Amino acid sequence: MSKDPINTAKQRRRSDQVTLSQVAQMAGVSPITASRALNYPDKVSDSARHSVLEAVESLGYVPNLVAGSLASSRSRLIAVIVPSLINSVFVEVIKGLQETLEAEGYQILLGNTDYDLDREYQLVRTFLGWSCSALVTAGLRHNSACHTLLANWDHPIMEVMELGQGMDLNVGLDHVAAGRCMANHLFDQGYRHIVYVGARLAHDYRAGMRYEGHKEVLQAKGIEAPLVELDTLGSLQAGADSLAKVLAKYPQAQAIHFANDDLAAGALLAAQRQGLNVPGDIAIAGFNGLPLGQHVTPQLTTILSPREEMGRLAAKELIRRLSGKNVYRRQHDVGFTLQIGGST
Amino acid sequence: MSKDPINTAKQRRRSDQVTLSQVAQMAGVSPITASRALNYPDKVSDSARHSVLEAVESLGYVPNLVAGSLASSRSRLIAVIVPSLINSVFVEVIKGLQETLEAEGYQILLGNTDYDLDREYQLVRTFLGWSCSALVTAGLRHNSACHTLLANWDHPIMEVMELGQGMDLNVGLDHVAAGRCMANHLFDQGYRHIVYVGARLAHDYRAGMRYEGHKEVLQAKGIEAPLVELDTLGSLQAGADSLAKVLAKYPQAQAIHFANDDLAAGALLAAQRQGLNVPGDIAIAGFNGLPLGQHVTPQLTTILSPREEMGRLAAKELIRRLSGKNVYRRQHDVGFTLQIGGST
DNA sequence: AAAACGAATGGTAGCGCTATCATGACAGCG
DNA sequence: CGCTGTCATGATAGCGCTACCATTCGTTTT
Q1: CATH number of this structure's domain A175-304
Q2: Terminal-to-terminal C-alpha distance of chain A
Q3: According to the model, what pLDDT value does residue A8 have?
Q4: Which nucleotide is nearest to B73 (CA to C1')?
Q5: Is there a contact between B243 and B267 (Cβ–Cβ < 8 Å)?
Q6: Are A221 and A228 contacting, i.e. CB atoms less than 8 angstroms apart?
Q7: Which H helix or E strand runs over B56?
Q8: Which pTM value belongs to this model?
Q9: Which label site among A295, B15, B125, B159 has the fewest CB atoms less than 10 Å from its CB?
């Protein structure tokens, strides 16, 4: 029991990884100075910095970021949680985030919820365990466990896509207003029988918000606002398939307001194949402003949302916050633009 | 100097984070037992496991994965490096990877090189610093620093998209063969003046490989294989713009073999707008098998590449390797399918 | 000249977890 | 009965890095 366990020296170093101590030794400085030379270059003398960098180069040192994060409880990881990767909208937001964040030395930890809030909660738990510097998530809705967890988290939280009272920072656009905008346009064009077509609105609830705006406008004008809900995710195919279905159910329909451009373009191309005239026989409108809409004939009337811009702005605000600067506006409205094509 | 620094006790705990020790204390077991209860549930007694899980729940414990990774030098992070997020092809591969990896409890660290191999090297360095469990990268080409770094790394490396002699594991398809396949198809359809149109082939070198296959076939038949290279990335717009350019330069052109479906569909839609008959005036072929190709009229002749499948397969092979199982085949050819539409 | 200060550097002690070995209890066996 | 083996648990010692404080030394201030 009182034996001196002198030979119990445990060898745990599993890999032959070069450590900062070795770099420091070679450079003839202490480990902490080597650490500073790499992380706060202007806190050490020119000569120290130089010899450390030289040692790094010649040993092929790769910093162990896991150890660094544990010691400093800062990770330079940003968690990004999106509901889908099929929908190119989220990918463009990620792209905007990424180009801005990578330039500042942050890395993205990507999670996909498949529109499932419980899955979101699981991902958030995991990501908090990585001491992420910040978290970006699509949307303002979370389950209650997730909400509690995030409310007690002391790092920036950025909720993107939609606009509203968020937990912390928020960059997005007003989907109800977008729905209103398109409904007004369709009304102004003289359409009176307008069908809204969306896919899985319980999950893609932002499309549901656009429908709310749409319905509000039309009902205020004393017009019905029928809704057709598809049970597949939005795609060209789903849009094409929905066209016949909508026309069968609402033969008097003059215009269809689709929840997004994939659906709308699918329907427009299907109409073309079927010899239907757009907008003569049926007008078609979408949402997002995907490039495809500008290449079909007639061009698709849609609402352009600044997706990459949203990602970039969100990233910039996060970076401001992370570098300790005050953030004046916690909420940013990136707006949207009605883009009128020949399809309405 | 010899003063007993009894009061120097340093307080470093910055956050009020719940630690495993607190969980263990509440559960009435040692920290290591608590650790085992969470990581190897069948290595502890039912009662211990139960009380630990109860304590976790009631304290709202979130495991510190950074500390765990440092101690175990395993991270359950998978680095994924792609050249672009605009090109939906890579996104689909990521999607396939993600759905498979997340199900096994791995997280994705995403990096984007913008087709720059030096950027790839930087990303690889950073990711190795996170002790990733494995690395997935698009393509077999790397700069020499990156190659050296990876060659000395003792974790699985998965190179996807193309097929060939890789560093470790490889899942992809033969792009030269794909180019040959389409060239043969066009020849068989009777076209003799065929132009290949690609974008930034020095960066998107896989498109260049397809051109090599294309050229090989045509030259073997004694036909010229003119190349038009665009200096923007592939997009509908670039495809549309290129059509006039190609026809001006090669008035005798009967068919255009585009490097991808974005370009091809853009050209097809532009032809339609300009009243050109496809394939009567000009035949059009693409590569990838994007859904859009099936919705335009005429349907686009293309080569279908199994992108999500590629991601899923890559993920499965990685998981096999990571769970210690032998991997019989280091190389997987996912193949491709010629999809003949009306556009040729 | 003494005191005060700032810049560069280093010693020490962790960050929160897990690998490793040690221990004690109990079962099976000749 | 001792010997070995298995199981559940725990004590200890790190993983590789950085926060925190202390020290040194040259310079400025009073």
Answers
A1: 3.40.50.2300
A2: 88
A3: 39
A4: D15
A5: yes
A6: no
A7: helix B46-59
A8: 0.91
A9: B15
Question: What is the percent of chain B with per-residue pLDDT over 70, rounded to a whole number?
Answer: 95
Beta carbon pairs, A and B, within 8 Å: 132
Pick the closest to residue B111 from A222, A60, A35, A101 (CA basis).
Answer: A101
Tell me: the pLDDT tens digits for B117-168? Answer: 999 999 999 999 999 999 999 999 999 999 999 999 989 999 999 999 999 9
Strand D, nucleotides < 7 Å from a protein CB: these are 8-23
* Annotation: CATH topology of A74-172+308-334: Rossmann fold (3.40.50)
Give B183-229 pLDDT, tens digit per residue.
999 999 999 999 999 999 999 999 999 999 999 999 999 999 999 99
Instruction: Report whether pLDDT(B341) > 80.
Output: yes
Residue in chain B lying closest to A14 (CA): B73
CA dihedral (A106, A112, A115, A117) in degrees, to 10, reads -70
Say yes or no: do domains A20-63 and A74-172+308-334 share a fold: no
Q: Of B49 and B12, which is predicted with more confidence? A: B49
CB contact under 8 A, A102 and B86: no
In this prediction, the residues of chain A whose per-residue pLDDT falls under 70 are 1-15, 327-328
Architecture of domain B20-63: Orthogonal Bundle (1.10)
Contacts of A206 (CB under 8 A, 6+ apart): A139, A161, A162, A175
Looking at the predicted structure, is the pLDDT value of residue B7 above 50? no
**Domains in chain B: boundaries:** 20-63, 74-173+308-334, 175-304
A56, burial (CB in 10 Å: exposed 0-12, middle 13-18, buried 19+): buried
Shortest Cα–Cα distance, A215 to chain B (Å): 30
* Statement: B74-173+308-334 belongs to CATH 1.10.10.410: no
Nearest CA in chain A to B298: A273
Chain A residue with Cα closest to B274: A297
Q: How far is A140 from chain B (nearest CA, A)?
A: 23
Nearest to A107 among B73, B85, B109 (CB): B109
Tell me the Cα Rg of chain A. 27
Enumerate the residues of chain B whose CB falls inside 8 A of the CB of residue A102. 111-112
